[in-house]
């Protein structure tokens, strides 16, 4: 039996580390040595800690030679894949030419390295270098990324900072046109399900103004068209809120929002109109609300009557500051998707 003399300080350190060291394997080593310091037999130590005789001997000898610090070293043997030596080559290629499937990645890796591996091995290798299956996003082809960045930094962010401090109220404005048609979503089901397609093309139009900070929603709705008059109605609704600080509406470049009638009324009501750059829906916060409404009450649902369709949308919008407030507060943060560093798939 290996004999070790423990000082009072060593026993206290072992007692502390067996509970508080972050690695469970080190905790077990400390436990074994602490039991040894309490004159517990090797047989009992192995029983209490679940280790073998050889492992216990290894712990004791390591302690004798290196002390507590030696027990803290955690070394694992991990066999390295042959592909590791080609990591840079593979990563460089896939950054420019991302594969659509693991099979495609297998073929390209074999072509680049001469090494053939199974789908599972290739999948694990791709994960190990930081790759994962991700849905491709969309950037409007005519979007000016530099103009977006300038707008965010020079126009939008300063006004939002004022809004957060109560020195301004900022509304994000946009119109949603909900057409009475099937909104196909995803359902957990035992077989593929189908919903009926309503006849006709009736649509319910909602022109909304979303408060950037409180998420209060002001709406003007109709079953015909959103036009300049509709926008003027929204301006009047906002003016009646008796807001005593400057008001800014952030909106897109729809033609009816950039006409003389709208400009003159906005000026008379002392409301600033701030137009986002063309092809920049990612900068309009209210777009996220429209997606939420579709997901909440339209996807995979059938409404036989247009009035039921309108009521479902209206009820959802009416609950934005009650039933759905917590969920929307999480969704409607003032962090905007930016494409400055985005990777665009090459054709």
Outline of this structure?
The chain is an alpha/beta fold and 347 residues long. The protein has three domains: 8-71; 82-128, no CATH class; 145-331, 2-Layer Sandwich (Nucleotidyltransferase, domain 5). It has helices at 8-20, 24-37, 42-49, 53-71, 87-96, 102-113, 119-128, 145-164, 228-239, 260-268, 286-297, 306-318, 325-331, and strands at residues 169-179, 203-211, 217-222, 247-251, 271-275.
Could you characterize what this model shows?
- One of its GO terms (molecular function) is nucleic acid binding.
- It comes from Candidatus Methanogaster sp. ANME-2c ERB4.
- This protein is of the alpha/beta class and 347 residues long.
- It is built from 13 helices and 5 strands.
- The chain has helices at residues 8-20, 24-37, 42-49, 53-71, 87-96, 102-113, 119-128, 145-164, 228-239, 260-268, 286-297, 306-318, 325-331; strands at residues 169-179, 203-211, 217-222, 247-251, 271-275.
- Strand 4, helix 10 and strand 5 (271-275) form a beta-alpha-beta unit.
- The model has no long low-confidence stretch (mean pLDDT 90).
Classify the fold: give the CATH topology of the largest domain.
Nucleotidyltransferase, domain 5
- Rg for CA atoms: 32 Å
CATH class (first level) name of the largest domain? Alpha Beta
Q: What is the mean predicted local confidence, pLDDT?
A: 90
Beta-strand fraction estimate: 5-15%
Helix content: 40-55%
C-alpha termini separation:
71 Å
Flag low-confidence runs: none
How many domain modules? 3
How many strands, which pairing sense, and closed or not: the largest β-sheet? 5 strands, mixed
Count of alpha/pi helices: 13
Total E-strand runs: 5
Order of helices and strands: HHHHHHHHEEEHEHEHHH
Biggest sheet: strands side by side, in what order? Answer: 3-2-1-4-5
Global geometry: elongated
Protein name: Tc1-like transposase DDE domain-containing protein
InterPro entries: Homeodomain-like_sf, RNaseH-like_sf, RNaseH_sf, Tc1-like_DDE_dom, Transpos_IS630-like
GO molecular function: nucleic acid binding
Pfam families: DDE_3, HTH_23
């Amino acid at each position: 039996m290996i004999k070790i003399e423990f000082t009072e300080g060593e026993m206290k350190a072992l007692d502390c580390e067996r509970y508080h060291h972050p690695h469970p394997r080190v905790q077990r080593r400390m436990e074994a040595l602490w039991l040894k310091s309490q004159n517990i037999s090797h047989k009992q130590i192995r029983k209490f800690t679940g280790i073998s005789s050889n492992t216990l001997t290894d712990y004791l000898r390591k302690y004798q030679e290196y002390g507590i610090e030696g027990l803290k070293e955690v070394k694992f043997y991990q066999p390295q894949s042959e592909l590791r030596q080609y990591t840079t080559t593979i990563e460089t290629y896939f950054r420019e030419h991302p594969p659509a499937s693991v099979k495609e990645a297998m073929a390209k890796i074999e072509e680049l390295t001469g090494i053939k591996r199974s789908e599972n091995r290739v999948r694990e290798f791709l994960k190990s270098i930081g790759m994962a299956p991700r849905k491709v996003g969309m950037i409007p082809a005519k979007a000016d990324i530099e103009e977006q960045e300038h707008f965010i930094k020079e126009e939008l962010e300063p006004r939002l900072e004022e809004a957060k401090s109560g020195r301004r109220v900022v509304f994000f404005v946009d119109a949603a046109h909900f057409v009475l048609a099937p909104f196909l979503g995803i359902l957990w089901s035992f077989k593929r399900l189908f919903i009926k397609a309503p006849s006709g093309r009736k649509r319910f139009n909602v022109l909304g103004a979303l408060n950037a900070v409180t998420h209060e929603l002001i709406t003007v709705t109709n079953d015909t068209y959103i036009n300049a008059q509709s926008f003027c109605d929204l301006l009047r609704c906002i003016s009646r809120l008796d807001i005593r600080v400057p008001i800014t509406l952030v909106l897109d470049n729809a033609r009816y929002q950039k006409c003389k009638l709208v400009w003159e009324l906005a000026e008379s009501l002392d409301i600033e109109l701030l137009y986002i750059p063309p092809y920049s829906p990612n900068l309009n916060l209210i777009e996220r609300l429209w997606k939420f409404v579709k997901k909440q009450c339209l996807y995979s649902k059938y409404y036989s009557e247009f009035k039921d369709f309108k009521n479902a949308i209206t009820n959802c919008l009416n609950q934005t500051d009650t039933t759905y407030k917590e969920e929307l507060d999480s969704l409607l943060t003032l962090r905007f998707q930016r494409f400055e560093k985005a990777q665009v798939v090459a054709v």
